[in-house]
Records
---
Amino acid sequence: MIVRPSENWFRLLFVWHGSVLQSIIPQLIFMAIVSSLAVLTQGRIFGQKIPLNTAPFTLFGLALAIFLAFRNNASYQRFNEARHLWGDLLISARALTSQMLCYVPERADKLHIAQTLIALVYALKHELRGTDPAQDLVRLLSRDQVELLLNKSYKPIAILNDIRRELAKTGQRAEIGQTALWMLDAQINKLGNAVGGCERIASTPIPFSYNVLLHRTVYTYCVMLPFGLVDSTEFFTPLLCVFISYTLIALEAIASEVAEPFSLAPNALALDAISRNIERSILELCGHPIPDPVAPVRRYQLT
């Protein structure tokens, strides 16, 4: 995720890192070549004049803009839901830790459960990104727990089940009341809902047919545009077509990037930073030293 201070209007024109421009330069070069050929041939292909003007492009461009807006809204809804789910994860983790510190009498058990809760957060992060969680699990859990977890397909749920089991054992020993146990279990259910919501987003992409249709439509429009403008704009055709193509192709690229909120793309959620923030919050509640927050890398980018 790009996190940077507000820039003035002039500097913002030249921002490079964090924009999608660097990823669509080949497409823009291709459009510049097509537009230049349209100017050199005066809108002809194999000697035949293509009978296009600006009227159909105006109507078609309006429909394309509406479709792009729908695609971007659908992508941002996924991003926004993912952001809310990780916010709920933070809130529930804090609440469970606070309730546990107040109602569970044994300090050793409380520290163990707190570390297991932190392991849950990191296990979820790695599951969503498809990375190896072993390094984070080893520093938080015992060797036996790690060996058991590495054989699990759904590690966050297995960890959540371990937390519930530990609290249930405490309740069975009558060390906490049933009301307090019910409150703790309610927070565990909220954690489970957040985990399930993240898994739903990660496992259910936007239907592929939408991507194909939008991709084909954008590029067809951009390739045909120079032949419709060449008679009226002449030598300015490449400049206008590249600028219009930049707008449309960049919107498609942004929609594709934002639709995967758990990826490592520059505009995806900063799961490393969020996970560290949850860890810091839990350890601070437990009265233990907290690690440093994740600092931006590569010029304002949080991972």
Note: Strands lie at 44-45, 48-49.
---
Amino acid sequence: MIPQIKYIELKSGYSDNGPAWIGKVEFSKTGKTIYFNGQAFKGNGHGYARDIQTGELYWISGIKKNGQDRHWAGSGKIYIDKDIVDEYLKIIDSSALDPQIYELVEIVQTDKQFFSNLENI
């Protein structure tokens, strides 16, 4: 599957204000494992998914064209991969990110082979 820009939010231990990211995710061949920022999740990229290592629950969804990715009752900055900002701005039809909402970060590559080995033990 082609890498896609997604909204990822930690739900375990939080309501609608958990740490959140916008970045490109990669998928396994079956599409049931999602790789992002050094982590792997079981899900389909359109709703709840569990971190393979910790069991924590995340929300992973497509980004909204209006830029309102957080739940209406949520709060907190959204960390956005500095490498996809231009692509994201085109999608939301904007010229700049609001620094009150977004913080630029570096997203690390995920070792997919590590997680493949972990799942197939």
Note: The chain is about 10% helix and 35% strand.
---
Amino acid sequence: MKRRILSMLFVLAALATGVQAQWVVSDPGNLVQGIVNSVNEIVETSQTAQNALSTWKETSKIFEQGREYYDKLRKVNDLISGSEKVKESVLMLGDISEIYVSNFGKMLTDKNYTQRELNAISAGYNTLMKKSSRSIAELKNIINPTGMSMNDKERIDLVNRVHREMTHYKELANYYTRKNLHVSYLRAKQKNEQQQVFDLYGKDERYW
């Protein structure tokens, strides 16, 4: 009987160890921190790079390296019980970064912008990512165990506020992109070169 009990305990211990190891790999707190670190690295690189092209190349590299965090996060059911908004908020940080990386890379080849304008556009995206990262960093107060001192109302209020902020920042990123692309379109139209703009960015009516 004792041997049977000991055998069962060893099996349970082995299972518990396996579950814990799996949790370390997909620990939501670590994923969120990884995403925040990645975006902060993009922000820092954007501030120190010598020109818009080198900025974009470095930030693109960082963004691609950080994709694994977003991919893993999409597979996590809940970061905290009953709050899909937390997950949505963090993923929106990735959306904002991707809006910058994908669109600004095309702008760099667009002759309708001056170098000074490209630098200013890059700085604008940088500001949006910086503010977004700060909002997401606040969520660590409820995702990580150190935030257990917060009561339910405080957690709900924080989640709702951050979700509103991230939705706003994502909308701003899209709006900022549309406005900048529209400038290129108007300049191309004056030269009867609209097709070149369409070929570069696509003929999506939301931009024009």
Note: The chain has one domain: 28-201.
